[in-house]
Amino acid sequence: MFEALRFGIKFLNNKKIENAKGEAELLLIHVLNVDKIFFYKNLRKKITKELFSKYQKVLQKRAEGIPLQYILQYVEFCSLRLKVIPGVFIPRPETELLVEEVLHYIDKRSNFSYPINILDLGTGTGAVLLSLLKEIKDAYGIGIDKNSLALSLAKENAFLNNIDNATFLEGDIFFPEKFVFSEKFDIITSNPPYIPNNEIKNLQREVRYEPLLALNGGEDGLLYYPYIFKWGKMFLKKYGIIAIEMGIFEWKDIKEIASSYGFSGYFKKDFNNVERIGIFYENYRT
Fold this sequence. Notes:
By secondary structure, this protein is an alpha/beta fold. The protein has 10 helices and 9 strands. The chain folds into 2 domains: 2-64; 86-282, Rossmann fold, CATH 3.40.50. The chain has helices spanning 2-14, 20-32, 36-41, 49-63, 68-72, 96-108, 127-135, 148-160, 225-235, 251-260, and strands at residues 74-77, 80-83, 116-121, 139-145, 166-170, 185-190, 236-245, 263-269, 275-282. Strands 5-4-3-6-7-9-8 form a 7-stranded mixed beta sheet, sandwiched between helices. A two-stranded antiparallel ribbon has the order 1-2. 38% of the residues lie in helices and 20% in strands.
């Protein structure tokens, strides 16, 4: 295993993969189909020629720019392991901040009554919704996405993580009027596409393997935000919140959009000191 790992690190380094050591290790563990403890305990054992050949093939895929998560077919997100496949957006570490801020908000406010109802717009793998449902003691959630592949994956991720209080529905953020719910929601979350379409060609090659639908935020990156606040006007309970992720330098425009729909709020910065998360509530809040 050690010799194979050394080969993988050198190979990925030569291909300019940033975290060559970490990725070579994860790919080898994936090929061997073992856990990390077994891997480290048996690092000096040899692997078969068949397994080494398989390892070379996945290293080549990674060198071609295929995202590591698509090769491994999973991503760690908050406390969950989520299955990911090509055709569905890969959850990012910065989106964990969205989950953390919602949980922090709930913890600091007394105006939430249980069970807490959550609506997640553009749910993708179900990352945000499932993470919240895993942490909140009494909650129910609905995830909406227009990508049928994503919906199937979100349902599978709920099953894999033993979460049975989530429902996933096919639908379009642009048409909230097509939905009727039995009750309103305490929390609406969304991590919509927010990359301006003229910037997509400049993205890292790994990102360009992901579905364009999950990246393209229109001409200015703000296409989806007015509709999210429209959902809020229609389906948010009094004293409920909208929690959203946004792109770099978009927060001022989003603040104006929110205000035009009668919402105000605050922003939280990410690891790079950029306003990344917004929490909004209707202006009748005191």
